[in-house]
Amino acid sequence: MKKIRAGIMGGAGYTGGELLRLLLRHPHVEIAFVHSTSNGGKPVYQVHSDLLGETDLHFSSTYTNEVDVLFLCAGHGAARKFMESYTGKALVIDLSQDFRLKGEHVAGDRAFTYGLPELQREAIKEATAIANPGCFATCIQLALLPLAERKQLTAPVHISGITGSTGAGQSLSETSHFSWRNNNVSAYKVLTHQHLAEIRQSLEALQQTEIPPIHFVPYRGNFSRGILTTCYLQTELTLEAAQALYRDYYAGHPFVHLASENPDLKQVVNTNKCVLYLEKQGDQLVIISLLDNLLKGAAGQAVQNMNISFGFEETAGLNLKASAF
């Protein structure tokens, strides 16, 4: 099979680095360029030090339109600005939040398709531009999609979630310094997190009705990568009925797994998996959802979307293994 050519805009950040690692090992991809305005001319291993000996690629301060797929790993707002002048014909996969919401998903003559494979696989196959979901949004939607499909989101949903420091990006801030983050946990954007809009958009489209309130409290964790969320809501479903519903929904989706025992974060870190676990306590259904924010929550999902779009095996280049230690 002929390889496709890929370009990465904004390749010096965390998600750009993850994309590099995945695409360097992808059986159907060759990397045409890795763009970085601030690192043009440098070997990529000077920024992503683990790639020493893995590649001779250098960062480029320019880019070419002669690619089949273009990943945008620029900051929020920068992707929309880039698309205003982009004239290439490549499939564009944007990892920012610029094009995720209806009404904000159009750039020039392109309409971005929301790229959650477990919801939009058929639409992704036809897309010319894909808006990769947010990391918390992915984790929470995968916890709730089966309920929405069966119109079972009839009570308010309460969610708590904790994320690693890489979720804040590579730029330094007060709350990303080691001395602040280590041995520390804090809540932030309580009930106002920006991913709530895309979560509601997807769930209401699937349930085909307005859903009850979603109350989400996110936390900053004192670890590098990974997300764990706990959702709970009132329902008449038995645990056995809920488990069957989830097994049926995810039967054809290779990266979502239903656990029989309460999982832990190390089961998903460094993988493209999302692991779900259900409990029933009284009339409350509890759904625990875990994933790696940089992979299934970002770069891994972007490659999954690329695989679907180009007709590759959905798991190509994504057979990654977690470590128990």
Describe what this molecule looks like in 3D.
It is a single chain. With 325 residues, the protein is α/β, with parallel strands linked by helices. It has two domains: 4-132 and 298-310, NAD(P)-binding Rossmann-like Domain (Rossmann fold, 3-Layer(aba) Sandwich); 135-291, Dihydrodipicolinate Reductase, domain 2 (2-Layer Sandwich). 26% of the residues lie in helices and 23% in strands. The protein has a seven-stranded parallel β-sheet, with helices on one face. Strands 11-12-10-13-16-15-14 form a seven-stranded mixed β-sheet, with helices on one face. Helix 1 (14-24) links the parallel strand 1 (4-9) and strand 2 (29-35). Helix 1 crosses helix 8 (299-310) and helix 4 packs parallel to helix 6.
